[in-house]
Amino acid sequence: MEGQSAAIARAWSPREFSAAATEWQRLLTAHLEQVMSGSTKVLNWAEPDQTAAAADEWLNRPLADGPEGVAGGMRSLLQQMLSSGQNLHHPHYIGHQVPAASPLAGLLDAAAGVTNQVMAIYEMGPWATAVERALIGRLCGLAGWQPAASSGVLTHGGSLANLTALLTARNVVLKDSWKDGVPAGTAMVANADVHYCITRAAGILGLGAAAVRRVPLDARRRMDVQRLEELLSELRRQNRPIVAVSACAGATPTGAIDDLAAVSDVCRRHDVWMHVDAAHGGSLLFSRRWRSRLAGIEQADSIVWDAHKMLFVPALCTAVLYRRRELRFETFQQDAPYLFDPSAPGMADVDVGMRTVECTKRATGFGLWGLWALFGAELFEQLVDRMLQLTQGFWELLNAEADFETLHEPDCNILAFRHLPAAVRLLPLAEQNRFQRELRSTLIREGHFYIVQTTLDGMAALRTTIINPLTTEQDLRELLSAVRDVGRRVWNL
User: What distances in angstroms separate CA 371 from CA 88, 109, 224, 294, 300, one per listed residue?
Assistant: First the structure.
């Protein structure tokens, strides 16, 4: 490596990489074995300023120059990372919609990172592009569409995916909006429990957050279809353009799945684009037992579906799917001759850069493709079935306990509940809410369980997402015991 500094030579050395990779394998294997056994804390809590200062201190240490070289430095860095992060593979991780991803999927993602496979044009990432095309075809098929007649791309997360799909809807519905902007009075309609990224998208797309009209929920916390009908009729009478109706298939607060068949009927009557945010719930399509909960999704114009939720691959990997293939180039309307070859227009269907926000797009599909290739689609069906069965059992367990209260029947693997001992039931709602929040705060700081919180109809609640195949019924029983214990200690109950 003539003419290069010693640091550059070592940073790119295959031999140094091999030594560091050996440490990586040894430490990660030991970490996973320990965490999966449940013998560690779920979360080693530290205050944010403390962790930021610790991370900054490492930047003062050229570890590769130390006596143990690159491999020793890598060992030190990994030890810090693994001891300070969230342990999602712990059976008591029952928190956010981020899974205990398959480590094997992580290995394939790591290979893409090491070789820096990127995608905007086919020649930069030919196999990554092939993998993405194969996955999009299979996912479209699962949605009930003909793969040859539909289309889509992979992108980095549900927020970006929803923005991309709704941008396409805007450009289709409002033909001149890319060039001239959005007319005043344009509306977007959404489930009242819609993820905040939908409102954020409305702001980015020039509609404004106030343009999002929220449809009230029914008793099952699904979009009230009659109220949707009334709202769309009102907007049509006012001659207001409607970009889309955004339905939920796995709403973030409760996992509720809208009656998609009924929503699609209303959308067709009013000639409105139907978008389904199935970031969480789309994976039910793999399950013969549960896919009927998504009946009607095949009528959607666009679907967003996260593989880094219930398909158990590392973040981020999200599909944006379009029922009509002819709309695939409506998202963006500009030329880039320095990147996309005007002499080869047929490559536009292969080059993904014309259809995504990203230009230098990381190859996101290797983890999903690899798990699918190794174990078949049956793996995803088994995972979905296990998560939903555990959640149903947890709901039944909570309902059998006098000091707990569920706030909804689960449609998927998300469940919100409250702990209400007799003394707490007598308190005003504000105090009951404070009790739930203090329960959760104490739980995560002590580190033996990780759950999150939400607020439904003014009631603060504990919220679980059962998204770890290592979690068992016994772990869920232990969670209730831990909640009771914290309640007694914190409030002297």
Answer: 19, 11, 38, 24, 27
